[in-house]
Design brief:
The complex is a heterodimer. By secondary structure, chain A is an alpha/beta fold. In chain A, 45% of the residues lie in helices and 19% in strands. Chain A folds into three domains: 1-36 and 518-558; 52-196, no CATH class; 226-402, Collagenase (Catalytic Domain) (3-Layer(aba) Sandwich), CATH 3.40.390. Chain B has a six-stranded antiparallel beta sheet with strand order 3-4-2-1-5-6, with helices on one face. A five-stranded antiparallel beta sheet of chain B has the order 13-14-20-16-17, with no helix packed on it. The chains are: A alpha/beta, B alpha+beta. Chain A binds chain B through residues 3-4, 7-8, 10-12, 14-15, 18, 235, 243-244, 252-253, 276-279, 281-282, 315, 317-322, 380, 526, 529-530, 532-534, 537-538, 541, and chain B through 1-5, 7-9, 12-13, 15-17, 70, 73-74, 128, 131-133, 135-136, 207, 210-211, 460, 463-464, 467-468, 470-472, 474-475, 478-479, 481-487.
Amino acid sequence: MAALQLEKQRGRSAALAIAAVVIVLGIPLWWKTTETYRAWLPFSEISELDSLQLQLSVDIEVVFSRGTLTPEQQKRFPHSHVNEKEHQVDAKTGLRYKYETRYRTATIMEEDALNQPTAAEADLSLHMLSESSCGSVVVYVIPGSSTLLPEDVKVYVGQRRTALLRSPPFKSSWNLKEVLSNLEMDVEQVVSTMSFAHQDIVAALSDRVRMTKVTKESMTDSMRAIKSSPGYEITFSLLNPDPKSHSLHWDIEGAVQSYIQPLLNKLAPIANFSVDSQILYYAVLGVNPRFDNSVSAYTLSADSLSHVINPVEARLGSNAASSNPVLNFLLYVPDAHHSPLFIRDHGKREVPSNAFHSPRWGGIMVYNVNEMYGPETERPVDININMSKVMGVFLAQLRLMLGVQHTHPPTGFVLQSPGSAGLSDWELDRLLWSRSVENIATASTTITSLAQLLDQIGNIVINDNIAQQVSSAVTSLQSAVAELEAGNLAFALQYSREAILASERAFFDPSLLHLLYFPDDQKFAIYIPLFLPMCVPIVLSLLKIVSEAKKRRADKQAKSD
Amino acid sequence: SHYRLFPKSLGQVLSKFSVRELHISFTQGFWRTMQWGQPFIPSPPGAELWVWFHDTVSDVDGNWKELTNVLSGIFCASLNFIDLTNTVQPSASFKPLGLGNATDHRFLRYATLPREIVCTENLTPWKKLLPCGSKAGLAVLLKSEKLFHSSFHSQAVHIRPVCQDERCTSKAWELRQTLNVVFDLYTSGQGKKEWSLFKMFSRTLTEACPLASSSKVYVDITDNPEGELFELSPATPLLSQAVVLGDRRTYSVFDLSRAETFGQLRSLNLLLRWKGDSGDMLRPLLHAERYVAGFGLQTGEIHTVIYNNHPYRAFPVLLMDSVPWYLQLYIHTLTVTSKSRDNKPSYIQYQPAKDRHRPHLLEMLIQLPPHSMTEVTVQFERALLKWTEYTPDPNHGFYVGSSVVSALVPSMVAMSTNFTQDQPLFSSFVPVKEESSYFVRVYTEPLLVNLPTPDFSMPYNVICLTCTVVAVGYGSFYNLLTRTFQVDEPSPPLSKRLANLIRRMRGVPLLA
């Protein structure tokens, strides 16, 4: 009997030992050999980015020229004042604007500059005196009686980062605080024109925030502008549907050099631009223009313009060598039998520029040449295209596409036209503000959704290079936010561009597609022939051992009772 | 950069990848040299791409990979299947055809895809590269439903740098688009021996492309000086003589840029009616063919046969063979025999394959004796592929690209080395360097080789079988280890039990 007990004991311990080996050695081995490689990702920092608190800091300098303040009021200069505004855009996104205003009196040299005969000259000589940093605003308050500005003009915004403000009448009995509070409204208007307005920033956040309470105007402005991208391809195409009648020549090289390139040089911090041009023959519009007897011309109505682009686009060709968004500018010279051709707006009036644009795509201009030759001229007629007329239109459209918004200045404001550079400094600043915010919004959404995706699907392999891209995107994002907070606009934009590049590279990395995808049913089909015969005896003998142990304990209890 | 006639899409590709010269061809069908004579622009079946890069390129393989991907997008072809396993760098067979004398073949890449099927989707982007598209000029004839109803179709794009003027002060890009089609109107036209533009293309010509400086149709009338063989209408007074492929040919020329070509109908429908049996085609001087010999699925032998039909001149040819790595060539079995005698090649360049990395490349300079047949044989063994490396239809077989025979063939007549002369475009593609010979490239047939194909459900079967074996073995082992053994009384033998049964029935005491 004792031998039998011993034998039973040996069987039990053998079963237990095998179960232990399977659990201690087999399962970890199986786990290790079938797991997917997943590098570590900074999930906690990404989830911090998910709720974004942006602070935008603007340096404002308000300079009082002679004759605006009494000596009593000037006593406490220089004086500075910080004004903060908070907006909660949605549950996860908050905005804080910090306006740091410094008040001082004008230096002698500035006084001299302000004594120039016209506002434009004053603007230029003020610019020569000191270069204000990117993103800052300088407001010169000039006496109400100054002849620098015409009678009804309150504010003049120059080509750089300065504005001239005609001072409202101050009572000499006011103390400084009253004066400044009187001035505050005007300065605020100037700043929202020259650096950013709340609705622009909210529109730039459209990637993160569902837009609800944005005005329609800034909505169309932001929809029209092409999305922020590290580079753009600008393509000018001359469409000649009738090479038998017209032999067209355009000096696109010179025109780009003199009209487009200055603007692009100015925009260099925002993105890389490449400019191409081509001539397409036998390219026709998708719509047949209607002949209008009253003006004996062909007309395209505003409703039909939406059908014009698609057939043409098939001929334009995409850029095979890069994946940047393309901005197309088309110059269409109507064929001899369909000219002149005019575009009409919704009010049935002829559009003076004879051009239209399509949001985020580009612009089309119709260029009539029928007046340049008589009916009996020998075909084809050599025609030189007047590039200054064409480029004026294209330049305006390009500014729209790039998001240099047509600001609608408040009444009493005069905005100096940007001149030959195509873009004034403060317009560039506006663009930098909204682009930085847009980049940060886009990059943070990309990174959070990537993290979410990787978290949800456990089968995706995460390689080290992806993890590296993700962490560099996260650090760039954090630096961009910090630089915005510090008011260093140029650095903020640069970091936000790096963040967007890294995040896109991580998101679209092809190695993420190598999903080791085995459906569960197939997995079980492969495992069952091995696992079922192995596990059943182990489980059964374990159950038996447990039940025997219980029985023995019950026996013992009964015996002791 | 700014483009006028040159297509922007190609121009951007050339500048981005620093391409010096680019030749790409898409061919459906095989050019039958013995029936149709020497092709003007030879091309192998499927797709062929060879590119010379500028010698400033540091990462040639990277550029090549990206370039093939971009070109496959432009031409809607599966050029993206070109990778290192089917790319070679021939040392002598493919020289640049344009300006400059680059000889460093590290900047050359050559690949063929013999399996590529060419169809409408490749023709449309090809037509789009033309300045007038298919809206005017000769290209109005190119309608795919007729073009692909033919015995042979080959479209190509050749880009090379050329001189802009005669004194060669500045360089320009030349883009040459060629299309070779062979129609067999005799079999498809109810046995009538005539052809016309309308019958072939279901269209006629009405105008030249207004941007073209020259737009001409050539009809070869060399064998028909008196009009005894066929009749061509409308008649044209314009004749042109040119030396093409070592032979002086006479052409009737229809110049589309002249209004009188179109006559009163304002349309040109060329009609050619044969009067009797057509004349014999001139036998091409150089001809090559290739086949696989051997039986079974282990070894085989590639035979390449090159014919020199010249009656009394011997000339050298360059033979280039690019064989995929899964045919393992035994290069010691390479034999070259002409007129049943060993013919030792004067130059052999052989680069062995690396499994899954690069193909074999074999280049040889062989002297062909006059009026002879030269046979090149080499044995190979078929490799076993991994199961993921098989194509979706592995039993179809695997293609091996055409081998390329390039030669300077002695010419019957003096070739013209004068470029300034007004020549038909198709005769001026390869620059003629000397008067006594002309350049010919001949492609052999591609090969279709069967590789041993496994049963693809095998992995699952193997898993199931091993699992079962392991489970059975494990089960008995487990059983042995955990079973409790105990000594048992042996049961009484059967006779005793039967006796006891009977005793119990009788009521007698049982046996012990």
